[in-house]
Amino acid sequence: SSGSLTEGAYSFCMGSDVRPDGSVYDGDGVTPVESALAMKEYVPHADTMILDDVGHFCWSDVFGGETVAPDLTKYHREGRPWYGDDVIIEKWAGWL
User: Fold this and answer.
1) What is the mean pLDDT of the chain?
2) Can you list the alpha helix ranges (DSSP code H) found in the chain?
């Protein structure tokens, strides 16, 4: 189950935090994958990259993370990497 920050962000991007069939969107906790890849519809030859199980931000490293995004803070504290972790940067930096 996602927290209110994720639900609000996904609702903003997709119109709802759940698909019409009731399933939840995949994403990084702030941006749903479908929204991140939406430009592909307008730029058919655009390259895309999906990094599995990577968080949008290092929530447990900042003051207030527990208040703003308790679920995402918990995932980060438990070891979920974010886009700025060295091991993840190695995956996407060369792709740019």
Assistant:
1) 90
2) 4-14, 33-36, 65-68, 70-77, 86-92
